[in-house]
Design brief:
about 110 residues; mainly beta; Jelly Rolls; eight-stranded antiparallel beta sheet; globular
Length: about 110
């Protein structure tokens, strides 16, 4: 299966300062995995998911991440951040990243805190 991000529409999510393109979802036949391309310019609201572990891969840019109650840390191109299920977190900056969910993301998985 070949997926070309430029062939997919961008979804604007102004409440989280981002645009995204869901690349792979549960219905795409890739197993129990989802992948979303995201470009953020600002701050994503603090959230958690009890449904999946998330992996963030920074494709380009600089920003920050907050996991649970730990101090904010800087992230940059090439960094990977793993967020275990149930852990609240936030992300921000000027970044392009991929977020991988296992099991696959489903509408309603995000809980804003």
């Amino acid at each position: 299966m070949l997926i070309r991000p430029d062939d997919l529409p961008e979804i604007d999510e102004p409440s989280n300062d981002l645009v995204m393109r869901p690349l792979v979802d549960a219905a795409a036949g890739a197993g129990d995995l989802s992948v979303t391309w995201v470009r953020i310019a600002g701050t994503h609201r603090r959230l958690r998911t009890d449904a999946s572990t998330r992996l963030y891969y920074v494709v380009e840019g600089d920003g920050w991440f907050e996991l649970a109650e730990e101090p904010r840390f800087e992230i940059r191109t090439g960094d990977v951040v793993v967020v275990p299920r149930g852990v609240p977190y936030a992300i921000g900056g000027e970044l392009t990243y991929l977020v991988v969910n296992g099991p696959a993301f489903r509408a309603g998985d995000d809980v804003y805190v």
